[in-house]
């Protein structure tokens, strides 16, 4: 194989991938339904064509890279170079079976045992065992009867905040079992950020004993999944991890389908726009313009509660004053991919405490539309006002109790 042929293959493959990104920029294919006209799914033919272009293009880039490496490192053994290329091609073909499976649309990739994967323990150890999920101290202020009612709903829609450069703490704390009660230094019968048992609920046993996760034990019927940008499922490695954690494509029809199946869904309303706010010491959310998750909750008839992860805003130091050309590239990538590629000053995350606080559910039964009808704009405004009040209360009540010196923090909600 000549160098020229390798270069031509790499160029053609790169052009195919760039064409996919250009089409996505125009059609919002990789951004989820929120940004598409009428929040509709893309035409099936377009999706198939885009997937084929992407798979062949990225595979061609991989093959060109392997060929170049083999030519430089294995010049004396053409047979070994051919075997390496064959092995890499086989791995790529195997990944293709996952890429074309559609598991991100129905949640079929979820594996409960993956929540106990040893990698999550290593992640927690990196953060000095300071990753945990706790109940908001507000739970201690309500009566036992109301506590029992609040946690007895069959399913919930969960708002996760903040998005951060990457919602690392919220996702790992919420979707794995590293935040177990044995490492929280709290009474196992009831939790608060201060590590004290809940006054009223402390006398009650945990509703579930089959999981150590705080939220899945506290809410007896909770079977939680999460939603992420469509592009996350087009990245090898990330796709497999997300699927096994129970993460699905954030397109509204897919989330609605899971809710109809009795599952609960966690969403990050701030999305890519909010990720641009991620700076240590800055507590800023983009929420007022994101009513889609509340529309979904009202029309599906489910209660809503919020989780706020203190520390997710400080995992990476972003380059705030980036050159104009670099900021433009990042914005174009955001429009194409549905994620905001971070401009970090360093790649290694800061070892900050990551505490996810679970709030009290809100019942929107008085705002729900008749079955089959859309939620009214007026009711969505009321629901958003209640949700923001609840989120602000959760933040203010717990900021001085969790580790990380957040006591003087001010939450800004846009």
Automatic annotation (TrEMBL):
A Pfam family the protein falls into: DAGAT
Coiled coil: none
Region Disordered, residue ranges: 189-209
Recorded metabolic or biological pathway in which this protein acts: Glycerolipid metabolism; triacylglycerol biosynthesis; Lipid metabolism
Membrane topology qualifier: Multi-pass membrane protein
Subcellular location: Endoplasmic reticulum membrane
BP GO annotations: glycerol metabolic process; triglyceride biosynthetic process
One annotated Gene Ontology cellular component of this protein: endoplasmic reticulum membrane
Keyword set, alphabetical order: Acyltransferase, Endoplasmic reticulum, Glycerol metabolism, Lipid biosynthesis, Lipid metabolism, Membrane, Transferase, Transmembrane, Transmembrane helix
Chief location category: endoplasmic reticulum
EC code: 2.3.1.-
UniProt cross-references to CDD domains, sorted A to Z: LPLAT_MGAT-like
Alphabetized GO MF terms: diacylglycerol O-acyltransferase activity
Highest taxon, organism lineage: Eukaryota
Family the UniProt entry places it in: Belongs to the diacylglycerol acyltransferase family.
Protein name, as recorded: Acyltransferase
Upper lineage: Eukaryota, Sar, Alveolata, Dinophyceae, Suessiales
């Amino acid at each position: 194989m000549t160098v020229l042929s390798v270069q031509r293959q790499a160029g053609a493959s790169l052009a195919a991938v760039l064409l996919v990104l250009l089409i996505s920029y125009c059609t919002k294919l990789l951004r989820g339904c929120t940004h598409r006209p009428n929040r509709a799914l893309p035409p099936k033919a377009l999706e198939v064509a885009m997937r084929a272009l992407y798979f062949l293009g990225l595979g061609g880039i991989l093959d060109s890279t392997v060929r170049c490496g083999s030519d430089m490192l294995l010049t004396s053994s053409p047979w070994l170079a051919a075997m390496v290329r064959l092995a890499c091609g086989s791995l790529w073909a195997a990944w293709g079976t996952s890429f074309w499976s559609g598991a991100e649309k129905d949640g079929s990739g979820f594996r409960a045992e993956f929540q106990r994967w040893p990698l999550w323990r290593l992640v927690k150890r990196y953060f000095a065992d300071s990753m945990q999920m706790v109940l908001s101290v507000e739970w201690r202020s309500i009566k036992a009867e109301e506590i029992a009612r609040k946690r007895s709903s069959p399913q919930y829609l969960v708002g996760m905040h903040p998005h951060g450069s990457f919602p690392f703490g919220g996702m790992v704390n919420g979707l794995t079992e590293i935040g177990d009660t044995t490492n929280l230094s709290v009474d196992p019968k009831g939790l608060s950020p201060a590590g004290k048992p809940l006054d009223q609920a402390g006398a009650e046993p945990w509703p579930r004993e089959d999981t150590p996760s705080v939220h899945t034990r506290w809410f007896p019927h909770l079977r939680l999944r999460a939603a992420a940008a469509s592009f996350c499922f087009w990245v090898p490695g990330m796709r497999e991890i997300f699927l096994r954690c129970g993460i699905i494509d954030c397109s509204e029809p897919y989330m609605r389908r899971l809710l109809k199946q009795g599952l609960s869904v966690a969403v990050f309303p701030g999305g890519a726009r909010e990720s641009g706010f991620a700076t240590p010491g800055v507590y800023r959310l983009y929420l007022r313009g994101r009513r889609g998750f509340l529309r979904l909750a009202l029309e599906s008839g489910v209660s809503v509660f919020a989780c706020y992860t203190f520390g997710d805003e400080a995992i990476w130091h972003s380059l705030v004053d980036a050159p104009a050309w670099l900021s433009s590239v990042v914005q174009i990538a955001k429009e194409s991919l549905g994620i905001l590629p971070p401009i970090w000053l360093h790649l290694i995350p800061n070892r900050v405490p990551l505490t996810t606080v679970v709030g009290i559910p809100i019942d929107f039964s008085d705002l729900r539309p008749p079955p089959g009808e859309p939620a009214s704009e007026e009711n969505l405004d009321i629901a958003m006002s209640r949700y923001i009040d609840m989120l602000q209360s959760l933040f203010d009540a717990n900021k001085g109790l969790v580790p990380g010196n957040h006591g003087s923090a001010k939450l800004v909600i846009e």
